[in-house]
């Protein structure tokens, strides 16, 4: 399988695991699949612009404001995708924090060497 496909499946798994742990985050399987695509697109398009616009605040908070932006990206996904429901902004921020940790652990456990099999 292609490396991007494995990463996408791992991202879906991380979203499902986050929704399982966080009580304010409800999810369907289709919501996880479509939500991961939408989240990837807005993280590629909108997130860099928001990070640039909030750079002074991000520097002032030593980078912690990034979690607020990540929470906003999840909240925006929740407002757009049916089956991807987060009950409140602070649940979105907590979900973003946990999703970051889970994604980091998955990336650490699945090395890039696995994606370069010949």
Produce the secondary structure layout.
Blueprint: H1 3-21, E1 25-27, H2 29-53, H3 55-60, H4 65-80, E2 84-86, H5 89-109
Antiparallel strand pairs: 1-2
Helix pairs in contact: 1-2, 1-5, 2-4, 4-5
What Rg, in angstroms, do the CA atoms define? Answer: 15 Å
- What is the overall silhouette? globular
The percent range for helix content is over 70%
Number of helices: 5
For the sheet with most strands, the description reads:
2 strands, antiparallel
* Overall pLDDT score: 90
- Measured between the Cα atoms of the first and last residue, the distance is 11 Å
Textual characterization of the structure:
- With 118 residues, this protein is mainly α.
- The protein has one domain.
- The protein has five helices and two strands; from the N terminus they run αβαααβα.
- A two-stranded antiparallel sheet has the order 1-2.
- It starts with a helix and ends in a 9-residue tail after the last helix.
- The model has no long low-confidence stretch (mean pLDDT 90).
Short description:
With 118 residues, the chain is mainly alpha-helical.
Attribute tags:
globular, 5% strand, 118 residues, mainly alpha
């Amino acid at each position: 399988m292609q490396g991007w496909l494995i990463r996408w499946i791992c991202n879906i798994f991380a979203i499902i695991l986050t929704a399982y742990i966080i009580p304010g985050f409800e999810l369907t399987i289709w919501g996880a699949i479509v939500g991961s695509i939408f989240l990837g697109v807005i993280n590629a398009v909108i997130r860099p612009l928001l990070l640039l616009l909030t750079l002074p605040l991000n520097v002032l908070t030593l980078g912690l404001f990034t979690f607020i932006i990540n929470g906003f990206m999840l909240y925006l996904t929740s407002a757009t995708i049916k089956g991807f429901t987060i009950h409140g902004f602070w649940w979105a921020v907590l979900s973003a924090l946990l999703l970051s940790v889970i994604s980091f652990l998955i990336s650490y456990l699945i090395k890039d060497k696995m994606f370069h099999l010949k």
